[in-house]
Amino acid sequence: MKPYIFTKTLGVIAGLLTVFLGLGFGILSWIGMGLSETLHSEHDMSNMIPMILLPVSLVLGGITVFGVFKLNNKIWSTIFVSVYIILGVTMIGFFLISFGSLGIRYEIFILCVGIIYMGLGYSALRKK
Asked: Alpha helix locations (H) across 39-103?
């Protein structure tokens, strides 16, 4: 069996989920800011956060989708494993920090993406 077959499949899925996660967060943030301005209430978030987080998540999803196909390179494989295990832990931390503020479906989605990224890093480490 060829190495990284499972990792490539999981990488494409994780990359697409990250793109959807970024788009969903951006849309929810802009809806929330628009409603707070319409209802003349204050919002605690800067207008720049969705504009920064949206492109970052799109780029991160793109790197995940295209970077998983370059795992035969030893240096890229080492960087890929470390970055995506750290990213998985960060997403799980973001889930714990945002618990109760984004809605249960969106928070569970963040948790699942974090677990998938940790699994992606682990499967790349094991060359599955």
From this structure: 48-67, 74-97
